[in-house]
């Protein structure tokens, strides 16, 4: 198993260790890959990607969405320096990984063989969002069923399926209990076809977008457990089907970094919104913002007012009935805050629940 990490140059010079870590992590991953099959690793002649926005390097720059307004927005973004992918003007992990072998991860239509499409699903096609399963089929069709044995294949899909499920109500989930396992099985079956067609080195990462359950979201633990289960099912299905693949454990990597931030150059001084890395890969963005969320003092954004006790009592008196139900409470930092106790409405739309109405 390898740990997956890619990043690009950081804008803020206060975080040099992060860049060093990311490059070191890539190096570690590639060493492990080389140990897996030295001859093949040394002889890669093509990067081929299948999946979603984790790998997409600009598919929609060369393919129309069918929505005139959206196509115009994409064209405008490209004119402003974006590449048509999901990293804006940043650099994708897929691009950096391919570059390590002297290859390119350009999208189909842009001179490369990266079939990944942002927002696509594992096995279900939605309009122009070709699924990972169909992407593999499209590739095999272009090579007459003979996959390049010297290519590096990376397949990352499932996050949008997870997101789809998390947005459904209880009735839908009760009626579709096997949705995610079915997507994992379908993707594993197509990866088996790919390997049978000649693919040798196939990296299959798990999910990173749900790596740290958010204590502020009552549904986060369930969402995280679901993502872990999906990744485990995919890897298990691949093993059952006798597919030789390399599991890239992004989940464990992100969790470790977020809970040990200073080891990797994240500090209280550097992790501020103004210091956010740009251009940036998806992985670094998630690590950065997860740590920012964990270190954030929530009373600054979730309270009516913050200050010393006397000041807040004065504020409460002045606002009178407008702050009914709010009380002066102490914070961990020694300050005081004017707020109410949180109680959920039971609706996903409200991230920070309140029960008292401002009149």
Structure summary, number of beta strands: 7
Distance between the termini: 57 Å
The secondary structure category is alpha/beta
| CA radius of gyration | 23 Å
Rough outline: globular
Largest beta sheet: strand ordering: 1-2-3-4
What is the mean predicted local confidence, pLDDT?
75
Question: Into which percent range does the helicity of residues fall?
Answer: 40-55%
CATH topology of the largest domain: Rossmann fold
Largest sheet: 4 strands, parallel
Q: What would CATH call the architecture of the largest domain? A: 3-Layer(aba) Sandwich
Number of domains: 2
Note the run of SSEs as H and E. Answer: HHEHHHHEHHHEHEHHHEHEE
Strand fraction equals 5-15%
- Count helical runs: 14
What are the key terms here?
359 residues; alpha/beta; Rossmann fold; 3-stranded antiparallel beta sheet; 7 strands; globular
Can you describe this structure in just a few lines?
This protein has 359 residues and is of the alpha/beta class. It has helices spanning 16-36, 38-42, 59-62, 68-79, 93-100, 132-142, 159-166, 170-175, 179-196, 220-240, 250-259, 282-295, 299-302, 309-319, and strands at residues 46-51, 151-156, 201-205, 246-248, 305-307, 327-330, 336-339.
């Amino acid at each position: 198993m390898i740990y997956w990490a890619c990043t690009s140059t950081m804008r803020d010079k206060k975080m040099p260790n992060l860049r060093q870590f990311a490059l070191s992590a890539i190096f570690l991953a590639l060493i492990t890959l080389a140990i897996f099959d030295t001859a093949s690793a040394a002889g890669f002649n093509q990067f081929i990607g299948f999946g979603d926005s984790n790998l997409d390097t600009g598919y929609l720059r060369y393919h129309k969405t069918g929505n005139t307004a959206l196509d115009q927005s994409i064209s405008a973004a490209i004119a402003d320096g974006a590449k048509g992918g999901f990293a804006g003007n940043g650099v994708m992990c897929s691009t950096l990984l391919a570059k390590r072998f002297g290859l390119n991860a350009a999208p189909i239509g842009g001179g490369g063989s990266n079939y990944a499409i942002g927002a696509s699903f594992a096995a279900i096609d939605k309009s122009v969002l070709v699924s990972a399963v169909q992407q593999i089929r499209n590739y095999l069709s272009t090579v007459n069923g003979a996959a390049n044995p010297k290519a590096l294949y990376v397949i990352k899909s499932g996050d949008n399926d997870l997101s789809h499920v998390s947005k459904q109500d209880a009735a839908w989930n009760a009626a579709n209990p096997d949705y995610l396992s079915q997507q994992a099985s379908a993707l594993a079956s197509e990866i088996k076809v790919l390997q049978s067609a000649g693919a040798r080195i196939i990296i299959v990462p798990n999910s990173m977008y749900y790596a740290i359950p958010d204590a502020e979201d009552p549904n986060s633990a369930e969402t995280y457990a679901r993502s872990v289960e999906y990744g485990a099912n995919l890897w298990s299905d691949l093993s059952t089907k006798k597919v030789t693949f390399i599991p890239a454990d992004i989940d464990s990597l992100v969790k470790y970094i977020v809970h040990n931030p200073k080891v990797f150059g994240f500090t209280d001084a550097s992790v501020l919104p103004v210091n956010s890395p740009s251009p940036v890969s998806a992985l670094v963005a998630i690590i950065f913002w997860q740590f920012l969320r964990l270190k954030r003092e929530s009373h600054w954004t979730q309270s009516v007012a913050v200050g010393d006790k006397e000041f807040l009592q004065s504020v409460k008196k002045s606002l009178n009935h407008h702050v009914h139900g709010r009380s002066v409470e102490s914070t961990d930092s020694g300050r005081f805050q004017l707020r109410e106790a949180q109680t959920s409405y039971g609706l996903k739309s409200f991230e920070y629940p309140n029960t008292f109405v401002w009149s």
